[in-house]
Amino acid sequence: MTDSWVNSAEILGSDLPLELSGTGNRRALLMDALREAVRSGRLAPGTRLPPYRSLAADLGLARNTVADAYAELVAEGWLAARQGSGTRVAERAVPVTPVHRPRTPERAARPVHDLVQGQPDPSVFPRTAWLASARRALAAAPDDAFGPGDPHGRPELRRALAGYLARVRGVRAAPERIVLCSGAAHGLRLLAEVVGGPWAAEEYGLPFHRSLLASHGVGTRPLGVDADGARVDGLTRRDRAVLLTPAHQFPTGGPLHPGRRAAVVDWARATGGLVVEDDYDGEFRYDRQPVGAVQGLDPEHVVLLGSVSKSLSPTLRIGWMVLPQRLVGPVVTAKGEREQFSSATEQLTLADFVESGAYDRQVRRMRQRHRRRRDQLVAALERRAPHIRVTGIAAGLHAVLDLPPGTERSAVRAAAWQGLAVEGLADYLHPGSEGAGQADAPRDGLVVGYATPAESAYPEALEALCRALPPG
Hints:
The protein is 38% helix and 13% strand. The chain is an alpha/beta fold.
């Protein structure tokens, strides 16, 4: 029996045909990936798997998701678990014959530089301050914090968030209106189940969110996007809800125009519709004060979704929904009788982190860092590619580089040759946009995330980016 401990990178390495990037159930995707790894021989009999807590942290999944996947695979006979020995690939009478797949050029080379949007640099997580909050939170935790969890979430964190969001984002909500979840995606799943469809959504947005809604029977139709944000005049009485990113339209940039903010609230009041406000990076505005949340205009018709994935780390799996009163009960019912998705101790730690002022300090630190990264990107483009216009830079963790028509795909391929991971703007376009009668043709562009690379690697990543851009 081998004592090798396979890590998550090996489980989801480039040789695997299935990665956890689909839109299905995350537990099922993980189980399929592990079965395939065993079936193909990449996980040999007797190989010890990581503890479920470690694998959950590595993959950004809830601990219960990984624990349940392990338990089911043990029951199916794929894995074996013994006290003190951990979880291992089950021994088989007939060894599995390894399958050797040829490595394609795309799989053979991993990117040297990562400019994909969406994640902060993991090296800047405030470990010391977080540990101090964890110690204080555990010392002060009431006994019920270690029992079955309330699906509303810990009251300590809901109180802390109510004060913080009111002060920083202009949100109007009592703690009783806040329901904790494992992130924005979890919140969308719950809202899809409670609200039903169809929904309208900005024509540029996360494909994952659209697919997630579709997997819960909620179809989306695109709303055009221009320099003033979503064209909310396209909403109809048939729409049950609209998914917006008003503080900083994702990914094109720019806040929703004040007139349109008022108009979308008027639509919700007149039709009984719901505005779902994804406040994914509302705290990170650089050239002036952050734009307040639309929720503050009408708390009874707007749901605000937020999380710590951009400000702290996506592995914490803590998010929140600020809900109209009428939706609190149905959402909690849909969530279940007990908290299954977010650790109570991490919720208590975040509550202390917010109340102690450490969260404010971290956001200020990250805001300064991201502003500096953005300025370096703009300066590099002015020096090396002055013909490229950069937009969406007033806020957030990414920018959009406008490209000449017809050059986006070639620029993405050129970036790959430079060892650079970056995405095209077309990757975020709603598949129904071109046939929806929108006035503007789809743009060519690159969505450049500037938060992830380490400080030492960022200048070289910018050089690689500039080499990949089409000439002027």
